[in-house]
Task: structure prediction
Amino acid sequence: MSELPSEQTLKIVDAFDLPETIRFLLRPGEMVKDAAGRRHRLPRYFYEIPSYEDAMAIRLTGNFRLNEFIRVDLREAEPLREYPRYVPCAVRITAFYLQRIRDEIGSTLHISVNGGYRSPAHERNHPASPHMWGTAVDIYRVGTSLLQTEEQINRYGMIAERVADEMTAFPFGQEPGSTDDHLHLDLGYLFLVPREVSEDRMEMPQETPRFAWEERRGKDRRTS
Ligand SMILES: [Zn+2]
Result:
């Protein structure tokens, strides 16, 4: 079923070397503007996920699987809905923070469809949002409670921001930068450059595609 060389080892790719259709949609290294008009550079290094089964099997932390961060619907560009799928390597950092918040709350956190990584081509990413970096999540349910009231959204948002200063939670509201039917959490515009890649300045496709395998470390990555 899986062609991964060993269980849960992730392939890291330089998006400049991906097939043109995919590269055109991911736009590695390009500058985009957020809602405030600030410019940010799009990520370049991605995990390549061969199949749905792999996405389900790969555990980023004790309670979060990779699959939870990449669920999208028709609002995502079609080539990016098919496997292999691509997600910025920073998703690992997001999962780490989310695990801390989950531990603090003591209940399961459910990320909505389109609420994890969304590509620059996704209909909901205009203007740019940290979802395009894999550093944002939209939580629609905590345990069995749907997040639909001001009290709940602000309460869990405060917990998340207390766990980590670098975490931003949108307050309850209808204006841009607020939410009324989920909790948006993000870490801003982070990159993760995996230690296994060799960075160079050649931001153009290479004859020999550049990729690396993530080294195995720690028990968190093993399936249970
Ligand atoms: Zn969001």
Summary: The two ends are 18 Å apart (CA to CA). The helical segments are 20-26, 52-57, 91-105, 150-163. Residues 131, 136, 138, 184 surround zinc ion (CB under 6 Å).
